[in-house]
Amino acid sequence: MKASCITAYGGKEVVRYGDVADPVLTGTGVIVRVKASSINPVDYKIKSGAIRMVSPSKFPRILGTDFSGTVEQVGSLVTVLKPGDRVYGAKFIFFGKPGSLAEKVLVEQKDIRPMPEWLSFSDAASLPVAALTALNGLRKGNVSPGKKVLINGATGGVGHFGIQIARAKGASVTATCSQANASFATSLGAERVTGYSKGELGALEEKYDIILDAYGKMDKEIICNLLKRGGVYASTLFMPYSALSAFLVRIVYGKRLTSSNMRGKPEDYDDLEKMLMEKKVVPHIEKTFTLENAAEAFEFAEKGRPKGKVIVTV
């Protein structure tokens, strides 16, 4: 099969398109013929070597977490899927496991979701990591009508879903983004838009129930100042602050610092699909690349400051 692989740690120059061996079916596995994938920060962090301690690579390596496509083969222990089914989901790619930037991908049945007929392959591939990460972070803050939410980095993959999900749950949203993306944030439902510099964040006078930090680099002093007592800060970084820092902030200030990572339980997909069907959440795809041009997709996702998602079609 054809795939886009990285041959070393580095920039777009390490991405190569060519022939690789087909995945080998396992008893609990499903081979999906990929129609679309997307580029997430975890992909280009692995590519650059930034997180090699938790995800070492043996080269060549296929990246790509999100996928959508059709089932080609199912393992002997798979009971809920059959060849031809339209599916989407997220492939676990840590510890060197191959991803979805290929014509085929082997996925465990627990990580696959049947695709609603009204959902396109490109839209489906934009969803799992970014939308479910945003949903999980907002849930950790018990997002609900009347809550005030600040979303930092509000127009990227996680952030643009975060605005829409928070509004769908009845919360009011303040978004931080560049001035160039301010109108986009407003169109998604943000009631207030500001910049993300330390000075601009420090100038905010409102207090928030939830801060969803899609960028992951907010200053702890500013977080504590902006959160209400009992408020929750959720970062897309796995460990935004040390356990000791989080403990002290909770004890001294009554505020919680936590991470916002993807959770893909059936009830999460159910909730997300309901919002999608009701058009309360609409994926925004900034740009689409072919598998052969995945190197350019990585470059654009990492350095082009895209609004919403970057998709790779197969």
Descriptive account of the structure:
- With 314 residues, this protein is α/β, with parallel strands linked by helices.
- Helices cover 29% and strands 28% of the residues.
- The chain has ten helices and 16 strands.
- The model has no long low-confidence stretch (mean pLDDT 94).
Give the topology.
Elements: E1 2-6, E2 15-19, E3 29-38, H1 41-48, E4 61-62, E5 66-74, E6 86-90, E7 104-108, E8 112-114, H2 121-126, H3 128-140, E9 148-152, H4 157-168, E10 172-176, H5 182-188, E11 192-194, H6 198-202, E12 208-213, H7 220-226, E13 227-235, H8 243-253, E14 256-259, H9 266-277, E15 285-290, H10 294-303, E16 309-313
Parallel strand pairs: 9-10, 9-12, 10-11, 12-13, 13-14, 15-16
Antiparallel strand pairs: 1-2, 1-4, 3-5, 3-7, 3-16, 5-6, 6-8
Helix pairs in contact: 3-4
List the defining traits of the structure above:
single chain; 314 residues; alpha/beta; Quinone Oxidoreductase, Chain A, domain 1; Rossmann fold; seven-stranded mixed β-sheet; six-stranded parallel β-sheet; 29% helix
In short:
The protein has 314 residues and is an alpha/beta fold.
Supply the number of structural domains: 2
Strand content: 25-35%
SS-derived structural category: alpha/beta
Q: Which homologous superfamily in CATH is the superfamily of the largest domain? A: Medium-chain alcohol dehydrogenases, catalytic domain
CATH top-level class of the largest domain? Alpha Beta
Instruction: Report on the biggest sheet.
Output: 7 strands, mixed
Share of residues in helices? 25-40%
Backbone shape: globular
How would you name the oligomeric state of the polypeptide chains in this document?
A: single chain
Query: How large is the radius of gyration?
Result: 19 Å
- What is the CATH topology classification name of the largest domain? Quinone Oxidoreductase, Chain A, domain 1
Mean pLDDT: 94
Low-confidence parts: none
Counting DSSP E segments of at least 2 residues, the number of strands comes to 16
- The sequence of SSEs as H and E is EEEHEEEEEHHEHEHEHEHEHEHEHE
In whole angstroms, the N-to-C terminal distance is 11 Å
Secondary-structure arrangement, i.e. CATH architecture of the largest domain: Alpha-Beta Complex
